[in-house]
Design goal:
The protein is of the alpha/beta class. The protein contains seven helices and eleven strands. Bound molecules: zinc ion. Zinc ion binds next to loops.
Length: 264
């Protein structure tokens, strides 16, 4: 039987070389939970894990079981704890090295990820794309037939720009992902996967431009010195209030973007 998202606690095959294990940490910011991706080239026994997920021993034990402990490398898409919290437990169970852009998450004798780097391991060829915006350290991983986008593009809804992410970076990252990923499967860190990244990326880009237009008109009403939270109350009136603090950091980056445009 083919499994469908969300399939908690079950390894669900998505492409010939990628399967997902969904952590049971649903919430407003994590959608159905964190997708831990397990990449295994056809004919190979060892694999690459992308995002161990939260500090949940049951989930980490499930990763170790699904991989039979044969993890050649663990990769991290970005610093948030729902992606990185389980690192040390996974290292304890598998001994696999961990690579990320942020040095604090490195384990073993490894270097931080570099933009454009090609990782050839366990029969896989993985290109690292630095795609900042959700956070400054967000990376995506390009495979021959798929792109792992972390929280830069989610399987549904839209993403939030954290304090260290800027809208300028985010829009640039989206263009980059479109260029590199159109026609390849979208394997996000939350929500369902999609057979083609392109329509989802295009929706994200148009959504950002719509929100920008809304922020621009909110500023016309509220005055150019309006505070981010005033703008959130206007522009995110359709979004649950529990998400307003997250929306606030997105609005702050939109305000920075608009104000820098005005200065330019
Ligand atoms: Zn995140």
């Amino acid at each position: 039987m083919t499994l469908a998202h969300p399939a908690y606690g079950k390894l669900r095959a998505v492409t010939p070389s990628a399967a997902v294990l969904l952590a049971n940490n649903p919430g407003p910011m994590t959608l159905d939970g964190t997708n831990t991706w397990i990449l295994r080239a056809p004919g190979h026994t060892d694999c690459v894990v992308v995002d161990p997920g939260p500090d949940d021993p049951g989930h980490i034990a499930a990763i170790a079981e699904a991989t039979a402990g044969a993890v050649a490398l663990t990769l991290i898409t970005h610093r948030h704890p729902d992606h990185t919290g389980g690192i040390d437990e996974l290292v304890r169970l598998t001994g696999a090295p961990v690579r990320a852009m942020e040095p604090e998450f490195l384990r073993g004798d490894v270097r931080p990820l570099i933009d454009g780097e090609v990782i050839e391991i366990a029969g896989l060829r993985i290109t690292v794309l630095h795609t900042p915006g959700h956070t400054a350290d967000s990376v995506s991983f390009l495979l021959a037939d798929a792109v792992l986008t972390g929280d830069t593009i989610l399987g549904r809804g839209t993403t939030v720009l954290d304090r260290d992410g800027t809208l300028r970076d985010y829009l640039r990252s989206m263009d980059r992902l479109l260029d590199a990923g159109a026609g390849r499967a979208l394997l996000p860190a939350h929500g369902p996967d999609h057979p083609d990244l392109e329509p989802v990326a295009r929706y994200y880009i148009s959504h950002r431009h719509e929100r920008l237009a809304q922020v621009r008109s909110a500023l016309d009403e509220l005055g150019p010195a309006a505070d981010a939270m005033d703008v959130v109350r206007k522009v995110y009136a359709d979004v649950d209030e529990s998400l307003w603090p997250a929306a606030r950091s997105s609005v702050e980056s939109q305000l920075t973007y608009l104000r820098s445009e005005a200065d330019a």
